[in-house]
Write a structure and sequence with these properties.
Structural class: mainly alpha
Number of strands: 8
Distance between the termini: 29 Å
Number of helices: 17
Order of helices and strands: EHEEHHHHHHHHHHHHEHEHEEHHE
């Protein structure tokens, strides 16, 4: 049960020694040993300790001092602020305003907190990084809309405006223009009828001159044509402002709303004097029904169909390999990737936590026994301790060290694995420092502790700061 004990004095002299308490079948009082074997019991210095090179005090401090870089921290804050803005702005594109702000803000805060806080879910790394992965996906997905809006705004507006104008002109050609053509047709027919009336009156159409039956028929026909012409003109006057409006400065949405309103003002049989004339085809009647598939098709003719399907827009646009979509996805991923990398490089500044332990031995014995449990495989098996009353306190201490320093990882209920040789060196240094500190202040002899084994000694220690 031996372990290297390197005090600052010994380290300064580049000398290592270890303390031996004997073998399990041949224990003896603790003795400091500088050779490879204990002179009292012949126990050999543990092999794994031979690989630990003595370090200077400066090196020790470097091990125990967390990496703190104010510039990195400021960069992390700025990146989170920018990412938060794009996440919220993107969420507003697909969600109502206030839910979007709440959702976007929550996503970004949790992402920043989990990346920056090393102690949160430190013992459940798979769960922690699974949550971070989900938050990155949500942040990137919502940020896509922000970047896409900025990168493709002008192009999208130009394409949308061109699309809307094309649809507007098609509507006019199919509904409004036939009515105007009807006026031209009637005017032409009226003009021809006037000529026939004059010819009939002058006897050019028949041998009989004057206002005979044919003449009267032609006059009646002219009156009917004039009535039909007046009806169409009145209808066109009522529809003119709805169909022939100024498109300059209008958005796709405004053009769509105006055209839909104009379409609703036209009836199928809008001309009472033209019973056979169909003003509005069955297709356009179906468009006026919001539940009909042609209504949706009519909407798609004015807008970008992919962007209208809000949640699926990123997938649809990337699938089409649009430059704007690929660029937006790249920027969103790079932003959140930079946050993760900076978050891993910045260590939060924390005050050392105080831990209270209730010992069933002296502090010196407590630390010595824990040091003696470290084996060649960097394993600490608490089932091998002599004083089983301290077992839970050792477990409590190692549990807190796992959270605050990442030096150890729990393998079983009472088994702990030291993560690597650097972690072990840092752990040994800290335990030795704590032992020496409390050994110097311990005015109660170890024999008194042994005689009063039922007496619990309370020990308050400050845990080391997070280790990287």
């Amino acid at each position: 049960m031996g372990i290297i004990m390197t005090t600052e004095a010994a380290l300064a002299q580049n000398v290592s020694f270890w303390r031996c308490t004997g073998k399990k079948d041949n224990p003896h009082l603790e003795e400091s040993v500088t050779s490879e074997h204990c002179p009292r019991c012949g126990k050999a210095k543990p092999n794994f300790l031979k690989s630990i090179a003595p370090t200077t005090s400066n090196n020790k401090n470097k091990i125990l001092t967390p990496i703190k870089n104010i510039k990195l921290f400021i960069a992390l804050i700025l990146l989170n602020f920018i990412s938060g803005f794009t996440t919220i702005y993107g969420a507003i594109q697909i969600l109502p305003f206030f839910p979007a702000i709440l959702a976007g803000g929550t996503i970004q805060f949790l992402l920043f907190f989990l990346v920056y806080s090393k102690s949160t879910l430190a013992d459940q790394k798979i769960l922690k990084w699974s949550i971070i992965a989900i938050l990155i996906f949500l942040s990137t997905y919502t940020s896509f809309f922000s970047y896409y809006h900025v990168l493709t705004k002008k192009d999208t507006e130009d394409k949308g405006y061109t699309r809307a104008i094309s649809s507007h002109q098609r509507l006019i050609a199919n509904v409004y223009t036939p009515l105007k053509n009807k006026i031209n047709s009637l005017n032409s027919e009226i003009q021809q009828t006037n000529i026939s009336i004059q010819d009939e009156k002058n006897g050019k159409r028949s041998s009989a001159k004057g206002e005979g039956p044919v003449y009267k028929h032609l006059v009646s026909k002219k009156e009917s044509l004039n009535k039909r012409l007046i009806e169409i003109k009145l209808l066109l006057e009522s529809l003119e402002k709805s169909f022939e409006y100024d498109l300059i400065g209008k958005t796709s949405a405004e053009i769509f709303q105006s055209d839909l309103k104009a379409l609703s003002q036209v009836n199928k049989n809008c001309l009472t004097l033209e019973p056979n004339y169909v003003c509005l085809s069955d297709e356009y009647l179906a468009i006026l029904d919001p539940n009909h598939q042609l209504h949706q098709k009519f909407i798609d003719s004015y807008f970008d169909k992919d962007l209208r399907i809000g949640l699926l827009a990123p997938i649809l646009k990337i699938r089409l390999l649009e430059d704007g979509a690929l660029g937006s996805a790249f920027l969103a991923l790079m932003m959140d990737g930079a946050i993760i990398l900076l978050g891993l490089g910045v260590e939060p500044k924390r005050k050392p936590r105080k831990l209270s332990l209730h010992l069933h031995s002296s502090p010196n014995q407590f630390f010595n026994e824990l040091l003696g449990l470290i084996d060649e495989n960097l394993l600490i098996d608490l089932d091998e301790i002599d004083n089983i009353k301290n077992k839970e306190e050792y477990n409590n201490l190692l549990q807190n060290l796992q959270v605050d320093t990442y030096w150890v990882t729990k393998r079983d209920k009472y088994q702990w694995q030291i993560n690597d040789s650097t972690s072990m060196q840092a752990l040994v240094h800290w335990l030795v420092d704590e032992r020496e500190k409390y050994k110097a202040n311990d005015i109660t002899t170890e024999s008194q502790y042994n005689k009063n084994a039922k007496v619990v000694a309370q020990l308050e220690i400050f845990l080391p700061r997070a280790y990287q």
